[in-house]
Write a structure and sequence with these properties.
332 residues, alpha+beta, Nuclear Transport Factor 2, Chain: A, 24% helix
């Protein structure tokens, strides 16, 4: 496991990662941000990247959006809470971010034709620094499917939820550059994990008896393109929870690679494993084994309930494993 075994100063880590992500969006040198032996897990079609592959990823983005700037909506750091399901060493501290690369889409990206206008490429990411303050590990989920939607090239049936730009948290304060609120973060993470336990132990697509006690009744749910945005318990169940449970009823997880929190914000992320036995996003059941890379950013209101949840999800990879390539044909 790459990274630092020494105790991290989270405020310093945030300053370094914030500067690095701003610089990378402007086309800065990747080797100024990343360690030589860094590993990045990036959404389809990039996959596990090192060295030149990480440079290629950022180069592809910058060529397509040459005037981009990075606009974070949620940005915080935390010490990584344990997960007994995970095997092997675990990084101790991470920085999580949700935001957008905002810029003019002037050149093709992964076969997506440019619009010549402004787009907002959704970027959800987690980074871990080494002892020298360089990024040693990254997990990055750009929503290329949402970019296709913005460009009028959406390859799936209409989403159940609404389309559109993901806003930041209610009331702002999502970019947290000062010392973290550890006690508040511990309380938020405890709520998240209790909620996950309720979701994961409930069997079947009938969710009428599943507790939603951790959620504000009118919470906002911002799911990746293909699923869309919905509001409240009924919207969440109708647009995401029930179709997902029907499509992959045997899903399970081997653990979260990230469990961090700061005050009223929390972030988890991991990989689900499942068999594709029901129609999903218009793709008929294949019986294939798939894995699903996902993160969840949570925001709690002052009464201790989840009022907003942002769900980046590598739908392009999941569809590819189902035998459907949603990206246009890539140039050779």
């Amino acid at each position: 496991m790459r990274g630092s075994a020494v105790a991290r100063d989270l405020t310093d880590d945030k300053a370094m990662v914030h500067g690095a992500l701003s610089m990378l969006a402007r086309g800065g040198a990747v080797d100024q941000a990343y360690a030589p032996d860094a590993v990045a897990e990036i959404a389809h079609p990039y996959g596990t990247c090192t060295g030149a592959d990480i440079t290629r990823f950022y180069g592809d983005l910058h060529r397509a959006l040459p005037d981009a700037n990075w606009r974070p909506e949620i940005f915080f750091a935390g010490h990584n809470h344990p997960d007994e399901r995970m095997e092997g060493p675990r990084v101790a501290a991470q920085v999580g971010s949700f935001g957008h690369w905002q810029g003019t889409f002037t050149q093709p990206l992964l076969g997506i034709e440019p619009t010549g206008g402004v787009v907002h490429l959704r970027m959800c990411e987690v980074h871990h620094l080494n002892a020298a303050g360089q990024i040693a590990q990254s997990w990055i989920l750009p929503d290329f499917l949402d970019l296709m939607d913005q460009a009028g090239q959406f390859p799936l049936p209409p989403m159940n939820g609404a389309r559109g730009l993901w806003p930041g948290p209610r009331g702002g304060n999502g970019v947290r550059m000062g010392p973290p609120d550890v006690a508040g973060g511990n309380a938020s993470m405890a709520q998240v994990l209790d909620m996950h336990n309720a979701l994961n132990t409930h069997v079947g697509a009938d969710v009428s008896g599943l507790t939603m006690a951790h959620w504000d009744p009118n919470f906002m749910y911002y799911a990746a393109a293909g699923i869309g945005i919905c509001r409240g318990v009924e919207g969440f169940r109708r647009n995401h929870q029930i179709p997902f449970r029907e499509a992959v009823p045997d899903r399970y997880s081997k653990g979260h690679f990230v469990r961090i929190a700061d005050g009223r914000f929390a972030l988890t992320g991991g990989r689900l494993y499942a068999t594709h036995t029901g129609t999903y996003l218009g793709i008929p059941a294949t019986g294939r084994q798939v894995h699903i890379d996902v993160m969840d950013f949570y925001h709690f209101h002052d009464q201790g309930l989840i009022c907003q949840n942002w769900l980046p999800f590598d739908i392009l990879k999941t569809a590819h494993q189902m035998g459907v390539d949603l990206l246009p044909a890539l140039p050779s």
